[in-house]
Amino acid sequence: MRGITRRTVLTVTAGAVTAPAVSTATAAAADTTTAASEGRQASGPNPVLRTDLVTRVMPRTNWLVTAVAIQYSHRIDLRGGVIPPTAFQVKATVGGKTAARTVTRVYPNTVAEVDDRSDPGRPGDRLIVELDPNDSNARAAGTDPLPLDRAYSVRQVADVRTPGGELVLTAGPFASRNNEIITPVVDDFAAGSFTDSAGFELDFRLYQPEGFVRNPQTRTRYPLVVTLHGGGEVADNNMTQLTSNRIAVTFAKPERQRRNPAFVLSPQIPLPRPMDGPDGTDWTDAKVQAALIELIDTFVSERSRNVDTDRLYVVGLSSGGRGIYSLLAKRPEAFAAALPTAGWGDPATMERITHIPMWADHSVDDPVVPYREGRFGNPGTWTLMNALEAAGAPVSRGEWANDLPKAHFEARSRELLRQARAARSHVLFTSYTPGTTPVSPHFAWAQTYENDVVIDWLFEQSR
Predict the structure, then answer these.
(1) Where are the alpha helices (DSSP H) in 4-125?
(2) b or e along 296-309 (b: 16 or more beta carbons within 10 Å of the residue's beta carbon)?
(3) Angle at the Cα of 232 (from 379 to 251), degrees rounded to 5?
(4) Which phi and psi (to 5°) does residue 257 adopt?
(5) How far is residue 147's CA from residue 6's CA, in Å, rounded to a whole number?
(6) What are residue 426's DSSP bridge partners?
(7) Residues of the chain whose pLDDT is less than 70?
């Protein structure tokens, strides 16, 4: 873990099933080491030490509990066998209601992580019980994170054996309950707050690249990605700006950081909702915008040796998209590129930002922020792109379905980018055909931040 996270380290799981582990933990650990070094299965009882929830931020369905990770005293080796999902029962208590979760796969692993391979897992002291993300009680949050400590129970209801009949795990009458909640990537964001010179406070989460964490004295300079959440994430939890969509997670996930190591700064607007902006939105609220600008400036100043000031990027969705158009007009020389999704803004300010590379997108049938009309008297992306072009910035346009498979979606994006480069255009605009944006026509951003073509393009930009 890096920095401050909401995870807490606990040594044993609550519940009767763990009682034997308390008095035998040291011996069990020694037995596990010996068994592992000899490459064999430890014999005898294999008590549960702890049970954790593994959650995931999904592109469209937000933050879900996708697995339970059970840690045992000894290493589990199935000798090539598999565990049927029916061997375990999982129940979740969410919103005062207890109901079963659907178990889809069970396998041993060396770490408390889901293995997405078709043949998952390896011999280890953890057992991963994967759960169906489509379960109605799979959510980890509503407006705020749900109270999930000890909310899940898991019970083994059938013996687990190797193909040769050797007993590996014995079924029992006791269920274990979870303690820790593990959210990969999100847990790597430190939590902080910033109070500006006027006394207004913004909470934020910060991801710091591994190279910087390993050596804070390095002179390596990294890009900074600033993420502006939507109106639904205005809260006091300093969490849902990360978990309600993958706007921040996409830049911090390991595969992206290997390609483009960067700082990721994700502020959150507090409650009660500041709505004093010229069009009644949060990121254009005078207090919020002043604090945001000061936060960015202060962070860049404090990390002056390590932030590449020629590669500051701002990305945002919905109300965050509105914030981008306003922020760029206020600070037209600060940012190298922007990704505004489903936003709206003031056409009169577009002449100030014609030089800034931008890849905007919006669903044609968006009912929340209409594609042309926008909100609060300020028009949507289609009108803003026309204003940009009228001000002298050629705009490369493309339209396709927002529910295409990833490979097809990225192929369309790649073709649009080819056209933009041929036309020497640094402004791209993707429209999504009506009826093709899953869940809600407003949620245009789900594919945006899963689109490697778009993210690669962003990191190529420099002032």
Answers:
(1) 19-38
(2) beebbeebeebbbe
(3) 90
(4) -65, -30
(5) 12
(6) none
(7) 1-44
Q: Which two tokens stand for residue 117?
A: 């391979």
Structure token pair of residue 280: 């009644």
Q: Which whole-number Å values give the CA distances from 401 to 75, 362, 451, in the listed order?
A: 47, 11, 14
Q: Look up the pTM and report it.
A: 0.88
**Cα 2 versus chain centre, distance:** 16
User: What does the alpha-carbon distance between residue 292 and residue 330 come to, in Å, rounded to a whole number?
Assistant: 12
Q: In what order do the strands lie in the sheet with 201-207?
A: 190-195, 201-207, 263-268, 222-228, 307-317, 337-341, 358-363, 427-432, 395-400
| Token pair in block for residue 410 | 């990225």
The three-state secondary structure class of 26 is helix
pLDDT computed for residue 129 by the predictor: 98
43 exposure class (CB count in 10 Å sphere: 0-12, 13-18, 19+): exposed
- Of 34, 74, 73, give the one whose Cα is nearest residue 50: 73
Alpha-carbon gap, residue 233 to 110, rounded angstroms? 35
Q: Quick one: CA torsion of 329, 334, 336, 342, rounded to 10 degrees? A: -40
Q: Are strands 88-94 and 152-156 parallel, antiparallel or unpaired?
A: antiparallel
> What would the pLDDT profile of 257-304 be if each residue is shown by its tens digit?
999 999 999 999 999 998 887 788 899 999 999 999 999 999 999 999
State how far the Cα of 220 lies from the Cα of 275, in Å rounded to an integer.
39
d(C-alpha 6, C-alpha 293), whole Å: 27
CA-closest candidate to residue 85, choices 138, 146, 37, 128: 128
Yes or no: say if 4 and 191 are a contact pair by the CB < 8 Å rule.
yes
- Is 363 within 8 Å of 371 (Cβ atoms)? yes
Specify the pLDDT at position 44. 56
Q: Are strands 181-182 and 176-177 parallel, antiparallel or unpaired?
A: unpaired
Helices (H), 158-239: 210-214
pLDDT tens for each residue of 361-387: 999 999 999 999 999 999 999 999 999
